[in-house]
Design brief:
CATH topology of one domain: D-Maltodextrin-Binding Protein, domain 2
Low-confidence stretches: none
CATH architecture of one domain: 3-Layer(aba) Sandwich
Strand content: 25-35%
Strand order of the largest sheet: 4-3-5-10-6-9
CATH class of one domain: Alpha Beta
Radius of gyration: 23 Å
CATH superfamily of one domain: Periplasmic binding protein-like II
Number of strands: 10
Number of helices: 11
Oligomer: single chain
Length: about 300
C-alpha cells in the first residue's frame, strides 16, 4: 500500500524544486528526505525527478504522480473540513478546465452564473492546453472544459462539444498608437504594429486570412498565448491587438486603450466540452444557458 507520508514528502519537493528547501519546510534533514523519496521511487518503480543543475525537475512519471497527489490531498482537506463543520451546507466542487488561449474576462463571464446557483458550488479552475485538459476530463477529474474550439477529432477521447456562443473582434491600441494610425478602419491596420494570438488560438488563422483578403499587411511584432499579457503589451504601446467584442469595453476601461475598429467577419467561438451528450450538471447547465443570453446572434459586415 502507498505510504502517504512519502507522497506528502514527494509533493513538497515537487512544489519547492529542491531537496534542501523542502527539508527545511518539513523539518527533516536533506539526507533523510532524499532517502524517503528514493523509497517512494522504488515502491512505484519509476524515477520521479531528474536533476537539472541545482534544481530537481519532475519526470513525466513525476508530473503524473503530482497530479494525483494534488487531488488526493485536496480530497483529504475537503474530508477534514466536512467532518469539522458537518452542520454547514455542503459545497460541491465544480472543476473546470480553461484552455489557456481563452481570454480571462470571457472565462469569468461564462463561469460567473455557476456561482449564483441555489445549491452553492466551489469553483475550481485549472488552466492548461486543451489537449491536457481533455485528457483530465476523460478520466472525470474535470466536470467541464472551456475552449475556443471543439474537441479535436484526432484525439482518442470521448467527449462532446457544446457551442456556447460567438462574437466579432475589436482592434484596440494605446491612444498614442491610435492617433498615428488614423480612423480609416481597417486600412489603418496596414503596416501598423500588430500583436496576434499564438499558434494554439483558434482565432489566429481566421485573423491572418482576413487581413490577407483585405490586402492588409501589418507588422507583426508579437505573438501571445495569454490574452491578458497581449493586452498589457498593447497598453504599453507595443501595438494594436484584437479582443472579443463582448469584452472590448471592459478591456478598454481596464487597460486604458481605445478602439480602432471592429469586424464581424472574424468570429471568436467558445465551447463547453463535457463527457455528457446532454448537459445535466447544474453548474454546466447554468453556464450554457447564460452564454446563450450573452452571445446574441450577429450578422457579418
Amino acid at each position: 500500500m502507498l505510504n502517504y507520508k512519502h507522497l506528502h514528502y514527494f509533493r513538497t519537493v515537487a512544489k519547492t524544486g529542491a531537496i534542501n528547501r523542502a527539508a527545511e519546510k518539513l523539518h527533516l534533514t536533506p539526507q533523510t528526505l532524499s532517502g524517503q523519496i528514493s523509497i517512494l521511487e522504488e515502491r512505484l518503480g519509476v524515477a520521479l525527478f531528474r536533476r537539472t543543475g541545482r534544481r530537481l525537475e519532475l519526470t513525466d512519471a513525476g508530473r503524473t504522480a503530482l497530479t494525483y497527489a494534488d487531488e488526493i490531498f485536496d480530497v483529504g482537506a475537503e474530508l477534514e473540513e466536512a467532518l469539522q463543520n458537518r452542520l454547514a451546507a455542503r459545497v460541491h466542487p465544480f472543476r473546470v478546465g480553461i484552455a489557456d488561449v481563452v481570454p480571462k474576462t470571457i472565462a469569468y463571464q461564462l463561469l460567473a452564473p455557476a456561482l449564483t446557483l441555489a445549491e452553492p458550488v466551489k469553483l475550481v479552475c485549472k488552466e492548461d492546453r486543451l489537449e491536457q485538459l481533455a485528457a483530465e476530463l476523460s478520466i472525470h477529474r474535470l466536470d467541464m472544459v472551456l475552449a475556443d474550439r471543439p474537441l479535436p477529432s484526432n484525439m482518442d477521447i470521448k467527449g462532446y462539444s457544446h457551442p456556447l456562443g460567438e462574437c466579432g473582434i475589436a482592434f484596440l491600441a494605446a491612444r498614442a498608437i491610435a492617433e498615428t494610425l488614423g480612423q480609416d478602419f481597417p486600412a489603418n491596420l496596414h503596416e501598423a504594429p500588430l500583436l496576434i494570438p499564438g499558434e494554439d488560438s483558434a482565432l489566429r488563422v481566421p485573423l491572418l486570412r482576413w487581413l490577407e483578403r483585405r490586402g492588409i499587411q501589418p507588422t507583426i511584432v508579437g505573438e501571445f498565448d495569454d490574452s491578458a499579457l497581449m493586452s498589457a503589451f498593447g497598453q504599453a504601446g507595443a501595438g494594436v491587438f484584437p479582443v472579443p467584442l463582448t469584452t472590448a469595453q471592459e478591456v478598454m476601461r481596464q487597460y486604458e486603450v481605445v478602439e480602432l475598429g471592429q469586424t464581424l467577419e472574424i468570429r471568436e467561438r467558445f465551447f463547453a466540452i463535457s463527457v455528457e451528450r446532454r448537459l445535466s450538471h447544474p453548474a454546466v447547465v447554468a453556464v450554457s444557458e447564460a452564454a446563450r443570453r450573452r452571445f446574441q446572434p450577429q450578422d457579418a459586415d
